[in-house]
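name: query_chain
kind: protein
chains: 1
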Amino acid sequence: MRLLDGLPDFPFSIEARDGAARAGRLETPRGVVNTPCFMPVGTKGTVKAITAERLGTVGAQIILANTYHLALRPGSEVVRRLGGLHRFMQWEGPILTDSGGYQVFSLRDTARVDDTGVVFRSIYDGSKHEFTPERAIAEQQALGGDIVMCFDQCPPGTAGEAAVREAMERTSLWAARCKRAHQEKDGLGTDGPQMLLGITQGGVVPHLRRASVEQLSAIGFPGYAIGGLTVGENRRAMLETTALTISLLPDDRLRYFMGLGDPRGLVETIARGVDIFDCVLPTRTARMGTAFTRRGRLNMRNAEHALSTEPLEEGCPCAACAGYSRGSIRHFVMQKEILGMMLLTEHNLTFLVRLVAEARQAIVAGCFTYFADSLDAAC
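structure:
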């Protein structure tokens, strides 16, 4: 572990490049994360429909937990008293906790947001709460994740420039307060040192993205997230903004795209230099009966799969493909059997983890462009 301004900075190095795409290595106290890397999302302290043990089998290196939800149920202090998030989740590897900023976005119609913080009502019981940058850091320190996030404001993709500017400037203001709160505890959480990442905002407005990166870089963080995308903007604007933001960020720092999980999107943003990702998409679509494959998504509710003896995808090592036919999985899905959700969840996570691992191998081999072009357009 290194120190940046006296705070934890987990070593990150670039091992290979192919164009803008890069293969990196993040060394955390709980294990190495080879990048590019996809993080499964455990919103409420568990990745839905899969155990921590199976996540290890899938090949997950790091997982995400949600501060907003855990702070409300069961409460961050409860998690701390139960041994911290790693023991709580039975996950020995690194954990990233988000700050709750995305929930500000999703609850914006009922929340009050100003420079102090956000006042909102719990989705569970309607009780009134206030999240400030200081509370976001305190909650994450109590939870005990390894990588923690600044509190940010994420405007919708349809917001006008004035609203995007206000959110960007507020995010920078909150980032400085988050860093001060983090420094007050020497960057330590319940389970040890925590690396704090800043979050860039600015929508798809180039000069606001530039201002965001400049302001956050002046504060100084060991890594930066690209926030405020995949929230309603068109794909071309998302990719252009990603490329611009990355071109402005320090080359030697970790880059995290928040909330991206479709296979094609992962490859497209890896090509632009992103290191890590998270998204609920693979697990959510699994619970809806959908499987990811190299030829596109399979809707397992379709009658065409009823008598199929094929696996979801030939050569996939997951439990679903190794032991079950499409026909049997369709039956489980149609009957709403929990096993169906479990099998599809493991398959979708295996698919994405393998995809980014293959992208890494292609970067190291110097053939990433060929790898990206060879993927089926439907993927």
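note: The chain has 15 helices and 21 strands.
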